Amino acid sequence: ATENQHGFIKTTKQEDVEITAGTLSDDKALTPYDLNQAIIAENSIIQNSILSLTNALKYTYSNNSTIYAQVGKHYSLRADPNSIVINLPDITTVAIGAKISIKLKRLVNNNTVTINPYSNQTIDEDTSSFVLDVVGQAITLVAGNDNSETDWEIV
């Protein structure tokens, strides 16, 4: 933990602790409140480490018309007012087993969510785009490597 003087632990606030390379730079402990603040902070090293260790996905709600997907995220999408295009990352740059999850939460008219593999890469060995066009449809993609061929697998 930290400095121990007569059985007491010296605590500090999250903003007073510099985190580098995933470790605390000072020998101080965070209070439960400040630890929670470090965990819920956007793009915090602590939050990303916990998500990675627990194999959890970071939740993202969006209706952006173009999304450049990132591994480790779940996208809850609203195809309203426009259709949505999701561009998958280059599978050769992500870890085998990395996940991306996508759900069509809401749509209007005949809007869709189109998922495009990077360049000539594949989704379940198919270079075609994958389309979600019914509310409630969802897909989880896992970066795979079968006999040295990389492929986004649908699970």
What does this structure look like?
The protein is mainly beta and 155 residues long. Helix content is 12%, strand content 40%. It is built from two helices and 15 strands. It has helices at 32-40, 45-54, and strands spanning 4-5, 8-9, 11-12, 19-20, 23-24, 29-30, 58-62, 66-68, 73-79, 84-87, 99-107, 113-116, 130-132, 138-146, 149-154. The strands form five sheets. The chain has a five-stranded mixed β-sheet, with no helix packed on it. A four-stranded mixed β-sheet has the order 8-10-12-13, with no helix packed on it. A two-stranded antiparallel sheet has the order 1-2. Strand 1 (4-5) and strand 2 form a beta hairpin. The longest helix is centred in the N-terminal third of the chain and has 10 residues, at 45-54.
Descriptors:
flat, mainly beta, five-stranded mixed beta sheet
